[in-house]
Amino acid sequence: MVHMVVWGVLSSLLVPGLGLAGSQQVPAVNGQDLQSQVKGTATKVIPAVVSIASTVMVRDQAFSDEALPFGLFKEPPSRRQYGQGSGVIVSPDGYIITNNHVVADAVDVEVILADRRQYKGKVVATDPKTDVAVVKIQASNLPTAVWGDSSHLAVGDFVLAIGNPLGLSRTVTFGIVSAVGRADVGVADFEDFIQTDAPINPGNSGGALVNIQGELIGINTGVGRTSRPQARRCRGALRWARCYG
């Protein structure tokens, strides 16, 4: 009897036209169609995602307390520190949106396109409180991301995260929206994040979070105190990028 009851419940979920009383019909998902759509979306968006290499000068604090005669202290030496992140091309003439922490205080910014062309980048705008920045390269006819609207997101929506984690270029991960409107995750001063279970690792920062149609709905920002990947909503980033782009 137990087996019959279980089979009866399963059949009501799997056979079109059958359902539990008072329940909503859940449309069947064709795995091959979903796979084709994910592949098509990745192919569409990858050309608009770039790798960003930054160089900052940092002082070696280990030498900061070295005393000199007459009560003076020796200036600590500076050294180069290298960082790596991602960015998204948002205009054909070379405006790129990324995270502020990817390019903050950089003395040199190098942008590498998906086709491996390299350009010197110039940071033209930053907003540390929202962890957003805009980088400009001297180029034209570039592939661009298509803007979406994160206000239409719902928990369970499929998303793809595209970037360069750990220096591995053109990496795509797949997941769902786990939550929207996340705040107090310890990533930025002003927080309105999309939480996703799509894997995001160091180097993904500044990369694209897109919906299943390939529309840009977030900028991957990092992992908060809860170790859950977060993405900055593009609803606000869109207005900000347009202001400077």
Quote the beta fraction. 35-45%
CATH topology-level fold name of the largest domain:
Thrombin, subunit H
Helix percentage range: 10-25%
Number of domains: 2
Low-pLDDT runs: 1-24, 235-245
N-to-C order of helices and strands: HHEEEHEEEEEEEEEEEH
Quick one: biggest sheet? 7 strands, antiparallel
CA radius of gyration is 23 Å
Beta-strand segment tally: 14
Tell me, what's the shape?
globular
Q: Please, what is the average pLDDT?
A: 78
Please explain how this structure is put together.
The chain is α+β, with helices and mostly antiparallel strands. The chain folds into two domains: 48-136, Thrombin, subunit H; 146-244, Trypsin-like serine proteases (Thrombin, subunit H), CATH 2.40.10. It has four helices and 14 strands. The strands form two sheets. The chain has a seven-stranded antiparallel sheet with strand order 5-4-1-2-3-7-6. Strands 9-10-11-14-13-12 form a six-stranded antiparallel β-barrel.
